[in-house]
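fyi for ur records
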Amino acid sequence: MGALEFQLVLLRRMADFQPELVEEAVRKLGTTTTAMREANRRWQAMARGGRGSGGPVRRFTTVLGPAPSRRDITAGGMSCEARQWPVPLWPDLRFEVVTAPGGALVQEWLVRAPRVPVPPLRGVDDLRPWSFVIDDVARALPSTPLEGTAPSRWRLLLTDSGGGRHLADFTWGLLQEVTPVTPAD
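which gave:
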């Protein structure tokens, strides 16, 4: 497994929300949806079997190589280490793995690359799939974090300028869709 297969793993989870974008990305990568499913199967096997030395980060370094970027951050009041790798499919983003002291995995998701500006984001109407990461949206719009619907998924409850509410769904930290919340009858 390498960087190509890792991108296919990311795409596999996104296919539930954006099948057309995923198909286009798979073609752009010069591969197939069958290869995407196989890469995901292999990644899941590595995740379940990777409890040995090196901790959870070993899986990423085995597939992606040493992280070109490492820095100390604070997450949930804890001193953590963040490692980032480029993702050719999304050149303005990095795949970030955050670990706690001792190597426990805290977070794994796509983030905006350093010094890359966020696309204009004035309101909910500006949100387009695959254009924003969680941090972009949470910083720009009134939002409340919610639990995601599956592993590697997150949600934000957004409030627009008119008081309307919307759910923003993210997979691997990348925006997938925004849907209006309708009041319960």
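The chain has a mean pLDDT of 91. thats all i got for now
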